[in-house]
Amino acid sequence: MCVGHDGSMQIEAVLGDITTQDVDVVVNAANSSLLGGGGVDGAIHAAAGPELLAACRELRRTTLPDGLPVGDAVATPGFRLPARWVIHTVGPNRHRGQTDPALLASCFARPLELAVELGASSVAFPAVSAGVYGWAVEDVARIAVGTVRGWQDVSEVGLVRFVLFSAAALDAFRAELDRA
User: Fold this and answer.
1) Residue 15: beta bridge partners?
2) What Å distances lie between residue 114 and 37, 98, 135, 136, 168, CA to CA?
3) How many whole angstroms separate alpha carbon 100 and alpha carbon 158?
């Protein structure tokens, strides 16, 4: 765990289910269609209820007709989740040649920007792009933690929690958090 210089942001990593986190914002590792999928995306859609899919369909119909670009983010209500909002972000897919670390970093920076705009004080992130998108969890941890640390002194967000799906992912994130 790491606390910012002014004590404002706590960053932690836990093993758990992101859909049960009592935070203002849950970040969804979405696909560009925003219409649900597997992994974290499917779990969040299932837990939030059909209203989330309806909200995502409305975004596709109006502001995002071509889908959400890789590295960008968009917010919806959390509906049946404990979280007030879901911020959807699309991680880069290494299997499709999307290997730019800046794209992955944007998947942590853009949700933080939106969280600040929403007035959120706590955010839970999954390991975006680890898993089926082919990024090594150690790389995701390094980029995610580095990006979030860059927000420590400039954000009203008081808590960032990485909610991880496996002991190996938890170990990778904790190792990064333990680095000075």
Assistant:
1) 164
2) 23, 23, 24, 26, 29
3) 29
Q: Return the pLDDT at 35.
A: 93
pLDDT of residue 132: 87
Q: Which two tokens stand for residue 165?
A: 């799906």
pLDDT > 70 in the chain, percent: 96
pTM over 0.85: yes
Rounded-to-integer distance, Cα 4 and Cα 28, Å: 25
Rounded distance between C-alpha atoms, residue 144 and residue 157, angstroms: 16
Give the residue numbers marked as catalytic. Answer: 41
Tokens encoding 130: 């680890």
Q: Which CATH superfamily is domain 2-178 in?
A: Leucine Aminopeptidase, subunit E, domain 1 (3.40.220.10)
Give alpha helix (H) positions in the chain: 39-48, 50-61, 101-118, 137-149, 167-178
